Amino acid sequence: MSTVAQEPVPSVGSFGTLERKRVHENPGNQFQYPALHSLAAPHIDSFNAIFQGTDSSPSWISAALKDIPPKVVHDHLKGAKSAAYIEDSDEEDHGEQTSTNKLGNRIQFWIDSVDLTKPMANLGGDQSHIQRIYPSEARDCSTSYQGKLQAKVCWRVNHGPVLSDVCPMGYLPVMVKSNRCNTEHLSPKEHIRHREESEDFGGYFVINGNEKIVRLLIAQRRNYIMGINRPTFADRGPAYTTYGTSIRCVRPDQSSSTMTLHYLSNGVLTLRFYIDKREYLVPYMIILRALVDTSDRDVFLALARGDVENTFLTERIELLLRSFSPLGLFTQQQCLEYLGVRFHSALSLPEEYTPAQIGKELLRQCISVHVTDNQEKFNVLVAMAQKLYALVAGECSPDNADSAQNQEVLLPGQIYTGLLKENLEGYLDNILFRIRQDVSRGSRLCNFSDPVYVTRMLRRSNPDVGRKLHYFLSTGNLVSRSGLDLLQSGGFVIIAERINFLRYLAHFRCIHRGAFFAEMKTTTVRKLRPESWGFLCPVHTPDGSPCGLLNHLSYTCQVSHRTPDVSKLPGLLVSLGMSQVLHGHVSNPNHITVQLDGRVIGYCSPHLAVDIARKLRHLKVSKQHNLPLDMEIGYVPVSHGGQYPGLYLFTTPCRMVRPVKYLSSKANYDIVGSFEQVYMDIACVDEDVIPNVTTHQEYAPTYIMSVLANMTPFSDFNPSPRNMYQCQMGKQTMGTPAQALKCRSDNKLYVLQTGQTPIVRSRLHNAYAFDEYPNGTNACVAVISYTGYDMEDAMILNKSGHERGFAYGSVYKSELVDLTSQARRGGGPVTLQFGLGEMDEDSPARRTLDVDGLPFVGAHLKAGDAFYAFYDTERKRTVVKSYKGPEEGYVDSVRLLGQDDITRPLQRIKIVVRIPRAPLIGDKFSSRHGQKGVCSQKWPSVDMPFSESGVQPDVIINPHAFPSRMTIGMFVESMAAKAGAMHGNPQDCTPFQFSEDYTASEHFGEQLAKAGFNYYGNEPMYSGITGKEFEADIYFGVVYYQRLRHMVNDKFQVRSTGTINPLTRQPVKGRKRAGGIRFGEMERDSLIAHGTAYLLQDRLLHCSDYCQTHVCKLCGSIVSPVNVPSAFANPGSREFSKYKSVVECKTCATADGITVISLPYVFKYLASELGAMNIRMTLKVD
Amino acid sequence: MAYNAYNPTLESGDQGPQIHIREINDEVLDFVLSNTDLSVANALRRVMIAEVPTIAIDIVQIEKNTSVLADEFLAHRLGLIPLCSSTVDRMKYTRDCNCIQACENCTVELTLDMCCQDDDTMEVTSRNLLSNDPNVVPVLTDDNDPGILIVKLRKGQELKVNCLAKKGVAKEHAKWSPVSAVGFEYDPHNRLRHTQYWVEQDEKEEWPLSHNAPEEPEPKPGEPFDFKAEPNRFYFRVETVGSLRPEEVFLTSISVLQDKLGTMQIKLDDDGGQDEPSDMGYGANDQWENGY
């Protein structure tokens, strides 16, 4: 039956050890792992697009600069020399000229261009010392990797010449490996020279020495009208219904603005949009009529599209038109003025603007911003209304915002551009504000025609745009006036932790649904939807609170990043039979719209649309007519109550796309988007192909999974939650975080000393360079219950294996020492210098410190040992700082950090301490199948069970780990690796290779039998203690084991005595402060239930806040007994003594009733608290 | 090679434990031990793995290490290098020695002093470990053996270490184990039914016969089960790491076992358990365990 089954499982070749050795010895000019570099492409491409445009589209930042509305100030001087400013447009009349006269001179500012240099440092003042900076230097010095941002600010006074000045805008963080990075074109060899990973693929920023990534986010698909039925819509006001259509329009600079059209039960439509986070609701008709000079009749025809038979539609349109007439707005001009008057303050436009101009600017800035032409904006609004009516009538279903079909990716470059744009505009506003201040103060200096004044104004307003973005990247908080049309204001940036290579990779592929959805009570947003097939990995999502919200892109999923030239596309479509949109022309109501990137470009019959879609795809795949390959051709067929029909073409950037095999042509490489995929016939495997129906086929079924999910061996044998756990645990493994370990200065690095390449590996293992970053060890694993120490997910390690280095790791901690921050005064001359000063030869600090005050490399450090020393030239003394510990470690390296001013003495160093972490009882390990366990015992080799050939397991796990978890993949891996180890070849564990006709156990059983083992992987074994053969034969094989970073040394918490809370005298909490662990109510209950009274007393009293206190038996108070000096004591008191003080009851004025009792201190505290509230507590004491 | 010093009071005709050597070379000793009890055979196995003393590098003093490997990593690698330990008998355990830390009676000193001055990568191997005792040197199989790779040095990197090799047993640390594995089997046909072979369909097809199977007659189908039978033929295959010859490992293990039994005998004869509990030959056990 299955063709997959018949063909032998392809071998994954050799381990490639020699080839890798060759490359390592002679790193060439070619990257070895191109697939690896494509993983970070969405990040890098989007950053590149900020500053680099193509022939067909400008760079995002230049588009953004163009979009900034004009910034104008007037000096209000009467009789200004060059009186009138006449706008270039011909609508300007003479009446307005005189009005501008009153305003006086006019100055307009704009930013012509922005330039970002590559990161440079100026060492020493003059130009000759300028040097390129590389990311490793920024990391080392805990600074940021940033280039100089400059803007060319232009201004023009009245009609005078355009003047300009280049203003520094501060330092802007640069993405590594982007077109503004110094490592952009470096080869692996040069990477190594610049102390980078040879295969570093960039995509991150270096901020204060940390590697930061702007997380990918899911956004609503741009320029597509979504039908929405949302209960909250009805709460907006009277007559509002739950229906609406919404479109997220994206400008050429990738900033977006969302419009929502609401349906009211009285037939009115209202358009909702936002200006600077403020919401505006405007009657639909006003906008429509303001856009185009049209009549009610034309609007009726456009909305009804000649479908006069449809009374549902016509009635509603009639209501809509009727509701508009009372406003008395008849012409476009009137509508524009109506809007202009109302939006005057919201838009902050030049004073000279007439209401009509303001109205126009409103339409430009807020309405259908993805198109520029007013007629096209009109068409978009009409299409929105049509879809809304269809939705209300039940002809179409609402679109699902949680489906990948209606989603795209919000790329780092977009947020970056948006922030840049806003801050640059803010800079212009700031200039304007200062000039206005001068004007209103009537400052003498305020002279527009004086370039010196203007440039001073330019300099005076703080232009440090770079800092704002630096803040964004270091905190992840978005400080924005407009909110950038985003639902969240924080959590955009994450640290690219290098716990191991898997973790690092996953950061670049993770995509978040948005913080807004994290607090949502419903779980619908978290669901795995069929529409995300191939784009989002169904396996790789964390369990727990971010489940389903934090997804990962499948390894083949790309994000489109080009803005192709599609100006010829409408013409091509017309030649294929589409009818164009002609103003005043009414199309057939049965025809569907053709939309290109949200522009209505024509109509055609559904029948023809099928044909057009097919032909267009063929042209696209065969690369004709210059059609972009990642263009989406989404034909939504006419249905009864399904998705709103139409032919939707998308060519914009930021869409999730993926490669799929096109079957009906020789050129078979097609790229498919998430919108069109829903309506396409894509077969998964050969058996799924239906002749004449199937047009596409997956290259491989594994294409749907992320890189990490693909690394799970035989994941098709495991239940899905186990594969999810493995995706989590793979990222917590102690592995090889980097190859350039000596050049890294991360705060904490976990390194496995002797990582191995897995014998069992998937085909992608090599493609993504996992052999360069080994993540575990091939361990001999026996599945047996032996001595009982392996129960409950514990595992037994072989002590001899441990002694030979099994799973040995180290933690590298680095500490930055900055003497300038320790100096008493900031700035000023340097007073602290590294060194020992006049320290004695035999001082204990000399054991670890060299004469330069820095620790010896290799020195063994315990808590309290001297860590570094410096000499205070002011106080003339040496200060020795000690190592805080608490763990013992070795000094791995001491790095002297440079600074911009090379004349200053050394002030900053970085000390890396290596802490050995041999596997201990309590450390966590896991196989690659979500089977984690804690080491519970290390048995000596002689006590371990052994096979007939004398092989002893490294790891023993309990058979109970399997029945409920059903991780058959682990069994298969065990067999496969055993056979692979015996035959000396790697084994392919790519999922979906086997079938019922050709099972994995057959495949590997044969190999095992050939090596002289039992077919099913069992072996007779002997007890190491008695030498007797076990009654059952033991499943014994080789499994790749990962050591997880959760180690007892970081977790154990013990205390006998220690710090207490001064108020309650109870132990403090927290491991760091050597505190206790809360023995809470439920724990107390269990002790009561067990009747263990002494234990209860021990925990809650003796080990907590035991105290002895005086009590007055007469009045029963524990608050009133006080110490009284004997001189003042009541003479009648007992124990009256000349020298001692006496405890007396204040209320009874005698010491007669005083006795000592023991009680918890909090009880005493409670008594005094109650006393403060005038509540008396009395104890009955015998 | 027959061995008969076990117990003269055995029944006549019984010669006590027998040894039949099937294969012997530099690394492997393959023999059949018969006519003895399972406990004796297993004790022998355990002693060979864990209690035959050898010499291994125990203390590493690092004077200079600019190689890519961390100090403890390097020290660990050095410790695992097998050293020729034929003269281990003449050495004392440091704990039994009169010296404070090291002397020639209990310690062999090895030095490694390498510096790469070429453009090519230099491979530092166990051949570069220079010993002050000509008898205790890193194990090499033959003259062409390049030695065990310790670390690779590039130009300018330097390594200068001083190693102190001590006598020890694998109970303390696996580096002192003279064997890499000891194969051990009895009853290849499962006549005693100590185990139950799990089968899917056919036992003969799924369970390959052990290579020791021809040594014993194949059970006839329907043979009655002798429930009183005890295992008494044990197939050993001792594979050494090279520090000791396999026969040395075996002979030493016998004498270690004898010592243990002797100690026990003496203690039992002495006072019938009146005195402080005997340590049964594990004399320094406490001391070892303190290290771990």
UniProtKB/TrEMBL annotation, chain A:
Q: Where is this chain's protein located in or outside the cell?
A: Nucleus, Nucleolus
Question: Does the record carry Ubl conjugation as a key word?
Answer: no
Q: What biological-process GO terms show up in the record?
A: DNA-templated transcription
User: What cellular component GO annotations does this protein have?
Assistant: DNA-directed RNA polymerase complex; nucleolus
Domain of life of the organism encoding this protein: Eukaryota
Catalysed reactions, as listed in the record: RNA(n) + a ribonucleoside 5'-triphosphate = RNA(n+1) + diphosphate
Which parts of the sequence belong to the DNA-directed RNA polymerase subunit 2 hybrid-binding domain?
Answer: 709-1073
A Pfam family name for this chain? RNA_pol_Rpa2_4
For this protein, the Enzyme Commission number is 2.7.7.6
From the record, give the transmembrane residue ranges: none
Looking at the record, the residues that make up the DNA-directed RNA polymerase I subunit RPA2 domain are: 601-658
Please give the chief subcellular localization of this protein. Answer: nucleus
InterPro entries in the record, alphabetically? DNA-dir_RNA_pol_su2, DNA-dir_RNAP_su2_dom, DNA-dir_RNAP_su2_hyb_sf, RNA_pol_bsu_CS, RNA_pol_bsu_protrusion, RNA_pol_Rpb2_2, RNA_pol_Rpb2_2_sf, RNA_pol_Rpb2_3
Q: Where is the RNA polymerase beta subunit protrusion domain?
A: 39-444
Q: Which Gene3D superfamilies match?
A: 2.40.50.150, 3.90.1100.10, DNA-directed RNA polymerase, subunit 2, domain 6, RNA polymerase alpha subunit dimerisation domain, RNA polymerase Rpb2, domain 2
Q: Which CDD domains match?
A: RNA_pol_B_RPB2 (cd00653)
UniProt keyword Nucleus, yes or no: yes
| Keywords noted in UniProt | DNA-directed RNA polymerase, Metal-binding, Nucleotidyltransferase, Nucleus, Transcription, Transferase, Zinc, Zinc-finger
GO MF annotation list:
DNA binding; DNA-directed RNA polymerase activity; ribonucleoside binding; zinc ion binding
**Name of the protein in question:** DNA-directed RNA polymerase subunit beta
Which organism is this entry from? Dispira parvispora
From TrEMBL, chain B:
GO molecular function terms attached to this record:
DNA binding; DNA-directed RNA polymerase activity; protein dimerization activity
User: Which parts pass through the membrane?
Assistant: none
Q: Does the keyword Nucleus apply?
A: yes
Q: GO CC annotations?
A: RNA polymerase II, core complex
Q: What is this protein called?
A: DNA-directed RNA polymerase II subunit RPB3
Q: Which SMART domains match?
A: RPOLD
From which domain of life does this come? Eukaryota
Q: Where in the cell is it found?
A: Nucleus
Stretch list, region Disordered = 203-226, 267-292
Gene3D superfamilies (UniProt xref): DNA-directed RNA polymerase, insert domain, RNA polymerase, RBP11-like subunit
Signal peptide positions are none
Q: Where is the DNA-directed RNA polymerase RpoA/D/Rpb3-type domain?
A: 28-267
In which broad location class does this protein mainly occur, judging by the first location in its UniProt entry?
nucleus
**Compositional bias of kind Basic and acidic residues:** 213-226
**Stored Pfam families:** RNA_pol_A_bac (PF01000), RNA_pol_L (PF01193)
What are the GO BP annotations of this UniProt entry? Answer: transcription by RNA polymerase II
User: Does the record carry Protease as a key word?
Assistant: no
This protein's encoding gene = rpb3
Task: Report the sequence similarity comment from the record.
Answer: Belongs to the archaeal Rpo3/eukaryotic RPB3 RNA polymerase subunit family.
Q: Which UniProt keywords apply?
A: DNA-directed RNA polymerase, Nucleus, Transcription
